[in-house]
Specification:
The protein is mostly helical. It has a domain of 186 residues. Helices cover 69% and strands 0% of the residues. The protein is built from 22 helices and no strands. Helix 7 packs antiparallel against helix 9. It is globular and about 70 Å long.
Amino acid sequence: MNHIHKARFRTFSPFFYKAISSPIHTFCLSIAVALLAFPLSPHLSMAILALYYVLLAYFIERKHLDFLLIPPLCMFAIIEFSRIGLGPLIYSLANDFETDQYILQMQVAHVTCFPLIMFVYYLITRRLPAFSLPAQPLKVTSDLYAYLKCFGLVCFVFAVFGLAAGAATGGMDRGDFGATYSGAGFGIYSIFDMFVRLFDMAFFLLPLVLMTVGKSARQLLKLALVGIFIFFFATGTRGFIFYCAVFMICGYWMFTRQVNWIKTASIVLVLGMLFLIPTMAIYRGTDAFSSSKLLDLPSRLAAIASFDENADSLDLNYNLTILSQSLIGVSDRFIYLMTPKLIPHAGWENIDALLYVWVPKMLYRDKPLLYESDDMLYAYTRLTFERSFATITFNADMYRRFGWTGVFAGNIVLGLVYGFAVRFAFGIAKKKRLFGALLVVFIAILFRNLPVGTMLRTFWYWLYEIPKYIIILLLIHHIVIIYLKTTRKSAPVSP
């Protein structure tokens, strides 16, 4: 382990610390257990290897653990473990250890290709210095903390207005009222939805805000926070609850030394989400939920009493199936099932759509879609999604286009892109400590909605979505700098 505050992470999780400190021993143990588990369930074997990749990612990024509880590559590995490891494993448990060959192909693609991403990422980022912030305890007068505090407040206010707009327009409503918004085109909530990652940044920086404001403001913010999480539950979208809670925990890790509290909160969150995922699915399926509006919060919350509408709501296998489907969350199995047996490899199909990356849809309504998963799934299954979007992963699309050769080559390219992106952000943090620290926070939250989907979607992320956020972050950065210069006796230095 890195010498900087290594005792802190050891205190947080002694067993986990020991596992990531000895990657060779952990690798041998993982291979042995995976081989022994294979006759019982191939899904279990793949899950064990996917878990090992999480440990290896933490070993690769161990130097940053003093301030980043979940560094970028680790976030990537954890999300993939939940999708490729935990989801299929729970599916197997719910189906008497039955093996789904096409889910297994998803797992094999990850297990064989993710090491390529990690290896290339390691080569590019291994010489980066450890990310750090000024010494604790916090000094409220520090220009860096004052800057991050102001930025956090801007993001939090933006998030509050965004939630209000989402409720008023139906943009965040999973009930019948939200269906009216789905086909309404560009509206007021679209502005907030365009910059939804600022919501994540608000919760990441909120612990710093809570620690540096006055007592009355702190109590008001805590009250607002309770209301926001109740609102999140009422939307029926579990991701809001989970990721905002995760980023708050990461924020407390970065800005405080409350190791025991953070460990307790992490355990409660993980266990709570295993219960909440099927609960939310059943909750959304009730008539009372569908017919009520998010604006009428008491009626929406009262839908909890309607759980008995679903006779299977207390059946263990039913809930495990819902949990596994939610964790997997993709439709890759159809790609592996039908390509190339029934549908030939697509090659560079629709690659010309990249020419329209920066063309606004409001100006050219017929622009080629870069979010092609819905059309792709329809071509394979004739299934349509009315209130949500289909999800096809990068590996599945590369297999659809070029076969296994494309999957391997594509993952090497992803490793290069991720590595250079992180190297750029951490490099800026050393040269421009204010904006650089902000960029590191952005990189930390970026990987929760992985900047990767189908091949075209991945291009869209890196050519449009991420540059868009860099521009808005720079804009808010300069506004905050101007504000601090006019309100503080000593202006921030080296912005």
